[in-house]
């Protein structure tokens, strides 16, 4: 992650992401801009973030290391949204890994400098409550879908959410755990998608050969989701 000095780009991201509307006071002069390449970390597990991040462009994923040493995939973030808001509210919260799926651009405010101000900003806190409730609702919907739809549809959605430049390369063990299925069942469905020409195996993972068909499978499960926005 690298800080970028580009006022024009920063202003463009502020204008296009709704960033200003989250605060009752003007924080623009102290807002910093960070660029995160795909695969890099926005927040590292065990290290308190120095900034409250606002993901203005890009997608990221949240991981946690379990007591037994296993790394578990928890959630996905898509712009625009805050990252590090739990650590802002609770300084004792244990941070988890937040990793960029694709190139990300983040607007940021210093935790140390702005924590007192933000925790007394009723507009910011209201927006934060709405954001957290939406994340919680999304997790509930995801759990319901895991119980109600075939793995074929759920895997199609998962691939679209995690792919980068048409390449899917998530670890099978983590993907199977996230979707609540066996490793063998996951491999069976991936083989089915490969046989149907939707995916193609390569050294770094799987190439999406037919985005239209993959999106159609995902839309059967979540017709209101903007998977179409992932089409290029």
Automatic annotation (TrEMBL):
Matches recorded under InterPro entries = cNMP-bd_dom, cNMP-bd_dom_sf, HTH_CRP, RmlC-like_jellyroll
Mention any Pfam family matching this sequence.
HTH_Crp_2
Listed transmembrane segments: none
Q: Which UniProt keywords apply?
A: DNA-binding, Transcription, Transcription regulation
Instruction: Give start and end of each Cyclic nucleotide-binding domain.
Output: 26-135
The protein, known as: Transcriptional regulator YeiL
Q: Which organism is it from?
A: Kluyvera intermedia (Enterobacter intermedius)
């Amino acid at each position: 992650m690298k800080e970028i000095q580009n006022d024009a780009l920063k202003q463009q991201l502020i204008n296009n992401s709704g960033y200003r509307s989250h605060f009752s006071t003007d924080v623009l002069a102290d807002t910093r801009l960070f660029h995160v390449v795909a695969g890099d970390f926005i927040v590292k597990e065990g290290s308190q973030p120095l900034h409250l991040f606002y993901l203005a462009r890009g997608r990221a994923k949240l991981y946690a290391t379990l007591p037994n040493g296993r790394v578990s995939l928890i959630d996905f973030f898509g712009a625009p949204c805050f990252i590090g808001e739990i650590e802002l509210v609770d300084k004792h919260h244990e941070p988890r890994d937040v990793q960029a799926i694709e190139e990300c651009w983040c607007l940021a405010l210093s935790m140390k400098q702005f924590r007192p101000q933000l925790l007394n900003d009723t507009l910011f806190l209201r927006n934060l409550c709405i954001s957290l409730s939406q994340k919680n609702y999304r997790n509930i919907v995801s759990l319901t879908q895991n119980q109600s739809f075939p793995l074929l549809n759920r895997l199609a959605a998962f691939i679209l959410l995690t792919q980068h430049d048409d390449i899917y390369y998530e670890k099978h063990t983590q993907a199977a755990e996230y979707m609540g299925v066996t490793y063998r069942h996951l491999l069976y469905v991936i083989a089915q998608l490969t046989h149907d020409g939707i995916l193609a195996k390569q050294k770094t993972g799987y190439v999406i050969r037919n985005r239209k068909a993959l999106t159609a499978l995902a839309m059967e499960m979540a017709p209101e989701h903007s998977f179409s926005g992932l089409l290029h």
